[in-house]
Specification:
Helix content is 4%, strand content 49%. It is mainly beta. It binds alpha-D-mannopyranose.
């Protein structure tokens, strides 16, 4: 089921950016996917901070060539490679290659990702036709980003843009924070959450002097991957963690949920567009509303997603049936939501804001 009475218009130009539109970072590499982009309005431009997933061209039929950041590189030695390549034997019966994103051991632990992601800027004046930078804008850096940086969410506060992203390594998935004023130079501010956590979206303004974020711990054992709220006096130190929204077992958002787009301020509350996945790993986007002054209060949550994978670029691709959005903005009563389609390409949908708000306000779901 899909939520009724909400007009959704997928842009005719979708997918807006596909792997073939992006140059690999190194000779003999290939781009597997360009997706899950952070979104910012900057001057009269729309900026997408793309997640670009790439790997060395696979030249050896018997082995998977896995890219890993050379985190020990000194930086000023041009001879030293930025990336190391690990060759993994496909015949190794102790390994599981069934998920195209990862290589697991037989106990189910991920031992490698099959690609490494960096962040790359794409710019547009009309929000439809984008020019993608020719090389990486931000490469992973250091041992805690050895496996890449992923899924950035961009929040503008004053003149500064704050970027929360997944920092992935063999130590786990942590949440990194960097800032920029111009999308040309970036300041790394360090990790703000330890593993395993991801899907952080920082609210665009302080509420009663405190900053807020949505985050998504990934408990192993007790607990579920659900949405939490935290607050901070300075965007650096986060505490007062509270559980916010849970799974709805057996439904479209029954296996895991997470932010989502950066919260959008409306008169009725903070509009939260979040992803939910079911047992079959189908990712859809749903909506909830939080109290403006007390963002720990869920005012409404739609029963059904407002968008589900339907277009061919959403139902097929590197990892099929995924709609995963990290950012959106409002223009003329429409929410322009940019999203990763099937971990493959970037698409955009225009969602009717008044209809979305009225569907939310009619919902029976509280909490
Ligand atoms: C993960 C996320 C995304 C990705 C989806 C689907 O949970 O971190 O990076 O788009 O899975 O593969």
């Amino acid at each position: 089921m899909i939520q009724q009475q909400i007009k959704i218009e997928r842009l005719a130009a979708n997918p807006l950016i596909a792997p073939g539109d992006v140059q690999p970072s190194f000779p003999d590499w290939e781009v597997l996917g360009v997706f899950n982009a952070g979104v910012a309005q900057y001057g009269d431009e729309v900026i997408l901070l793309l997640r670009v997933a790439e790997r060395p061209r696979q030249t050896d039929p018997g082995r998977v060539l896995v890219p890993v950041l050379n985190a020990e590189r000194s930086g000023d030695d041009a001879e030293e490679p930025i990336m190391n390549i690990v060759a993994v034997d496909k015949e190794n019966s102790g390994l599981d290659f069934s998920d195209p994103r990862v290589i697991r051991d037989r106990k189910g632990a991920t031992i490698y990702l099959t690609s490494i992601s960096h962040l790359r800027v794409a710019r547009s004046r009309d929000g439809v036709r984008f020019t993608v930078d020719e090389g990486p804008t931000v490469l992973p850096e250091g041992p805690l980003e050895r496996w890449g940086i992923e899924d950035p969410r961009v929040t503008r506060i004053g003149d500064r843009y704050h970027i929360a992203y997944s920092a992935v390594s063999d130590r786990g998935v942590a949440v990194g924070w960097m800032t920029t004023e111009d999308f040309a130079s970036f300041t790394r501010e360090g990790l703000i959450l330890a593993p395993t956590n991801k899907d952080v979206a920082i609210f665009p303004e302080a509420i009663d002097g405190k900053y807020y974020m949505l985050h998504r711990p990934v408990p192993d054992g007790i607990g579920e991957p659900e949405i939490w709220l935290a607050e901070s006096p300075d965007l650096r130190h986060w505490g007062n963690h509270r559980f916010l929204m849970g799974l709805r077992k057996g439904k479209w958002d029954g296996a895991r949920i997470g932010a989502g787009c950066v919260p959008i301020k409306t008169e009725a509350g903070w509009l939260i567009l979040y992803h939910g996945a079911d047992q079959s790993h189908r990712y859809c986007m749903g909506a909830a509303l939080l109290d403006l002054q007390r963002p720990d209060r869920v005012l409404a949550r739609m029963e059904e997603p407002f968008i589900v994978p339907e277009a061919d670029y959403e139902t097929s691709g590197f990892f099929h049936s995924v709609i995963f959005a990290c950012g959106a903005f409002v223009k003329e009563n429409q929410v322009l939501m940019y999203y990763g389609a099937s971990d493959d390409s970037v698409a955009c949908a225009a969602v009717d804001l008044p209809q979305l708000m009225s569907a939310l306000q009619q919902t029976e779901w509280k909490g």
